[in-house]
Records
---
Amino acid sequence: MKPIRLDHPAVSVAPPPADLPLGLIPLTDADHELIAAANAVLGRHYRTFWHTVAAAIRSKDGRIWTGIHIGTTVGRLAICAEAVAFGRAVLEGDGTIEAAVAVRHPKPDEIDRELAVVSPCGACREMILDHAPEAAIIVMAPEGLVKLPVRTLLPLPYRR
Ligand SMILES: [Zn+2]
């Protein structure tokens, strides 16, 4: 079995291609540190089914807050890693989100054994937009890893 990579390849450290589509923001070194923080948490705390996704949030003051997904037997009660990380940012930090990323662990039967950046679920898009409408989310695009404004990921959010 191929070992799991805890670091993240610096695929986007090079200057962004000139033809990067509108709205895509190239990653910075700080963004790669954010991904590495999420990978490190998942490497330490991964448990099949119970803890399969980790997230990292960078607040406006530069501090990083990590979280781990909490699986539950009743699937809809599961708590996303982003929510755990944001709770820490609120309780221990300034409660802001400048950038966020989530990474997933491969399932036991998957051939690719690398941790991978995963887009936030719809509920987390709503949560991040509610609390940090200017936040950027790191996602995997066809061009590689990029950041997108959360508004772009949720153009028509739920409102009541
Ligand atoms: Zn979520």
Note: Strands lie at 53-58, 64-68, 99-104, 116-118, 136-141, 144-149.
---
Amino acid sequence: MASLTIRKLDENVKTYLRLRSAKNRRSVEEEVRVILRELIEGREEPLTPLAAPPDVAAPAPTSQRTSALPEASVTLIIGGGIAAYKSLDLIRRLKERRIEVRCVLTKAAQQFVTSLAVSALSHERVYTDLFDPQSEFDAGHIRLARDCDLIVVAPATADLMAKMAHGHADDLASAILLATNRRILLAPAMNPLMWNNAATRRNVAQLQRDGVVLIGPNSGEMAEAGEAGVGRMSEAIEIAAAAERLLRPPVPRPLAGKRVLITAGPTHEPIDPVRYIANRSSGKQGFAIAAAAQAAGAEVILVSGPVDLDDPDGVTVKHVESARQMLEHVQASLPVDIAIFAAAVADWRVANEGEQKLKKTSAGMPPLQLVENPDILATISKLIGKRPPLVIGFAAETEHLIDNAKSKLQRKGCDWIVANDVSPATGVMGGDRNTVHLISRKNGEIAVDSWPVMTKEQVATELIAHVVKSVADKSLEPAS
Ligand SMILES: Cc1cc2nc3c(=O)[nH]c(=O)nc-3n(C[C@H](O)[C@H](O)[C@H](O)COP(=O)(O)O)c2cc1C
């Protein structure tokens, strides 16, 4: 940690610190620590308890960086070219995209746009000088170089690119560009003759080898009367979009355009209006699969029995109680491209469900007669016409796991079975981890792929990765 020598502070700052520390009965050093802590914790109060002496330099406008971290931030270096006026629009375009902007103006840039305009648009102080004591007391050029997610140079003049290509650092802009470990996006802007000059061509080639990204220049009319060619700076909107692509690269969405139906949780089979038969399924595995499918870009419909889980974001959730309701909602959700039946559906329900709460009587226990519930997996697997191209069932077994799962695959007519051992000792029912075996058919044989113990989220991600691969291999026809 750098230690601060109080002696070196301005007289008025020292006076302020002495007054404030005396009032708070702290040492000056302790007071500085408190001020820093308050500043870092985002409280706005550090300089307010005492009126600052009139000649204390106003603090630099505080950005939101201290209180709420922005989604992304850019250090924008504005070079000295005619196109600098477009950078004012660029600041606005970046801010529209919730990208925080701190600006650096080269000496030449200040001939084209004013610090005042840039500061007013960025809502930040503007940096212009490498040897600025106000920002250099803590190596401000290093902060500007690294305390951001991306550096954008617009306009990138021929001069700035030459400096970058040769590692110069004799002003604030070039020192930042040399000191950064962030990606750099350049928007060159210059006369076509400058752009085509052999020196500029060499510098551009070198910068590209160094990993610098370029946007433009475009071809068109120049500011100079009668001149046209390649050299116009890209429009602000194009530069902002390029910055956003670097800051927030598009997430792969391999299941985009696919409709995925998932069931999860237990079912509750009523005995009477207040009692029911249930099982220990928590729904965690099915919900994790729904979230993973959604993250892969699919449109996801989740039909869930009674669970104590929040609906996953971006997923259409249909809450049901019984197996019959679950089947109804599953059928109503067709057609789908992929169906994954992870629910622990009760095999039986009470045939003689009481319309009123069953009473204890001297006649003994009420006779509960069970009837078989509809088999959702088999019903959907054997559909003609609306059968989803990929149907995956789950087998929860407490013994002979693989054998039972293999015969379930054959019996039900589904494409894959995810088999998991739910004996109490495994802690799978209601727990956060699962050990599964993926049973499928390969070249007429039944193949077993045993996965190591994983969290239910990891099982979900792995299963969806297999689905993505199968979709790519088989090119599933879109559900219609
Ligand atoms: C009116 C005028 C317009 C200029 N326009 C450009 C330009 O578009 N691109 C460029 O590379 N240089 C341009 N220059 C030259 C730069 O301003 C000059 O090379 C300067 O040193 C660049 O400084 P900087 O790279 O530190 O911003 C222009 C100069 C003048 C006087």
Note: The chain has three domains: 6-40, 68-247, 259-353+367-474.
